[in-house]
Amino acid sequence: MDNRPVVLEVRHVTKRFGGLIAVNDLSFDVHHNEVLGLIGPNGSGKTTMMNLISGALSVSGGDIMMNDLLISDLPPRKRARAGVARTFQLVRMLPSMTALENVMAGAVFGHKKLWGRGLQVHAQRQLERVGMGDVAQRPTSALTYIDQKRVELARALASDPSILLLDEWLAGLNPTELQVGIELITSLRDEGRTIILVEHVMDAIRSLCDRCVVMSSGVKIAEGTPTEVLSDKGVIQAYLGD
Ligand code: ADP
């Protein structure tokens, strides 16, 4: 039993794409300062679920509540204002803009009431937070992949979100970079952030997640600590069938 307040409630959410049910009557809670792993084999509906939370997609049925506000009817921008921030599976930033400008854009999208110098200082702080303070004036296209990912994280943090959605943020990193990435997410957890992460890297799931929701073919097949779900027969079967 987790006594921390619930930040996000997913209630009986369904998403249909024509005849295909990508997410089927899915329910779960995310508590304050929890790192929840949304895991499962390819095609199980994880990214769709992240898109339903951020508002990139709208639900076919069910409700999503954040801090008691019904957000599943709101457009993405209003959800950002309500405290949802996300990173993408593939880095999606404006490549010709500098790292600082990208982070400033994140703050504006999340409706941080900052302008001019105040906005710049805030964005610079987010870059420093992810160890990227010295690349502020470089175009993001000139940065390495992991550094682009770090700037993307700074951009998501710039709105000071109630919940941070990380969609395979660690994908494509080499083992050394992976370690840096895991430490960075750990430090976000330690400072009290609430995070949902979609992840395939098992080491990362084990070391970062308090709890996992396991999806297969759009439905929840298990929920529990990483140790519990990764030893569950149904979960192992679902992954072997991947
Ligand atoms: P995962 O992230 O677990 O790999 P996805 O959420 O990407 O799974 O996909 C779940 C299912 O929904 C898959 O069968 C996929 O082909 C389908 N799907 C995802 N997005 C769309 C879309 N925009 N239009 C039609 N089908 C989609």
Automatic annotation (TrEMBL):
Claim: Cell membrane is one of the keywords in the record: no
Keyword set, alphabetical order: ATP-binding, Nucleotide-binding, Transport
One Pfam assignment: ABC_tran
Domain of life: Bacteria
UniProt cross-references to InterPro entries, sorted A to Z: AAA+_ATPase, ABC_AA/LPS_Transport, ABC_transporter-like_ATP-bd, BCA_ABC_TP_C, P-loop_NTPase
Transmembrane segments: none
Gene Ontology MF terms: ATP binding
Domain ABC transporter: 8-242
Gene3D superfamilies cross-referenced by the UniProt entry: P-loop containing nucleotide triphosphate hydrolases
SMART domains linked to this entry: AAA
The protein's name in its UniProt record: ABC transporter ATP-binding protein
Organism: Salinispirillum marinum
